[in-house]
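Researcher: Going back to the complex we discussed earlier. I've cleaned up the inputs and rechecked each line, so this should be the final set. Can you rerun the prediction on the complete assembly and write out the structure?
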Amino acid sequence: MRSLLRVAPPVLVGIAALIGWELLVSLGRIAPFILPAPSAIGHELVAQRGNVWDAALASGLNAFIGLAWGTAAGVLAAMAASRFRLLSEVSIPLAAVANALPIIALAPILNNMFESTSSVPRRLVAGIIVFFPVFVNTLRGLREVDPTHRELMTSYAAGGWTFTRLVRLPGALPFVFTGLRQASSLAVIAAVVAEYFGGLQTGLGSRITSAAAFTAYPRAWAFVVGACLLGLLFYLATLLLERIVMPWKTRLLS
Amino acid sequence: MTAVALTNVSKVFNPGRPDEVVALSGIDLTIGHGQFVSLIGPSGCGKSTLLRLIADLIPATAGTVEVAGKPASRARLDQEYGIAFQQAGLFEWRTVQRNVELPLELRGASRAERRARAAEMLALVGLADFAGHYPAQLSGGMQQRVAIARALAVHPPLLLMDEPFGALDEMTRERLQAELLAICAKTGTSTVFVTHSISEAVFLSNRVVVMSPRPGRITATVDVDLPARDDAARQSPAYFDAITEVRRALRGDAAAAATS
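Model: Rerun complete. Updated structure for the full complex:
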């Protein structure tokens, strides 16, 4: 009952927005190539569900692989940077520079480095995008060690890897997930947008561009909805993983 | 053999720099087996620093620190002491039981041994029913009990405590004081207890060591001899006499304290 009350308001607002959109398009006589009505998009989504599903699988796989290697690289780099002061002094500005790069704009350049049927450039772009939030948050988490914990571990004569494994890594987990929550949707966006620049035509991004090129706007929107759902799925999966990995955070609520 | 022996110990932070601080100077202190000794003094008198020297968390600038008959650094590696701080400092990602097991784990104890010892310790502090809880699900007093159980898990001959009850309310504090005394009596553990509560120091200790700041040094030691340490003792004349004596010593009236 309580969860129903919590879910109801956003759902109602969403339905109201859709109805408003529908009325705006049909009563306002807006040309369908400018803004298709939600009913048209919905119709197209049902008609194209097989295509949307296949395209979402292709983009989703790229996003997932990018998310996986970007996260692994981010966490490992943060561990290295927190271990060696010199490395962290060098790496933080470098990471900031890398973050300021218009990475999605690198996609066409990366496309040229690989053959045209390769998914590697998209996975690279998604991973690079994921790297930064994970790296920065994890590094912050690894550095914030409770002074009492530090003294305790010293009193147990536990240092080095034991200290990292037992104290710093679990202590940094909430920070890792803060980064991962940002990164999960970013990975999907990066994987989809990277498809705009040629290469394999299997993913959501390429379907959106080709549908738009054929002025099939409701179909383009149907794939946009697919991309939105995919991003949402990644985000929710991250939240679920967070609950599973950190039971001590969720047990408080019970 | 003595539990702790400090000879002419001093500690200087940031030596040779403009922010040099002489935290402790000329400290001589011997603590016998099974004794309960409190260190008391105003903030900045170096009582916590002294405890950390005994624990070998920081090195002494001069003098020798011995714990259980060996150099403090050796004693730390051998886990000859357990330590508890004002912050319980539990690992929030471990259950209560796994928190208590940690020092045993680092010692390489087997799983069965860890289980048994953790159960024994949690029973000792009256938290046997909370083994599966996470620290954040416990009250402050219960967390501090877990910290004590963890400090005692390896059965160390010495227990070091840095204002462990400082953040607790008065009722909880008095209950935990009584429990701590019972535990120490049962296990025969020697204890060094840092506090800035006069009544707490007197109630708990065989000996109260009074310190003063700039530079941190021992100005007086007051022996406390209460017939029993229970609620009646908190009303006894001996208790109030000792409190007066410690208070005088803290005011710098050291000569009066020594002769009375």
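Model: Worth noting: Chain A has one domain: 38-248.
Researcher: Good, that matches what I expected from the previous run.
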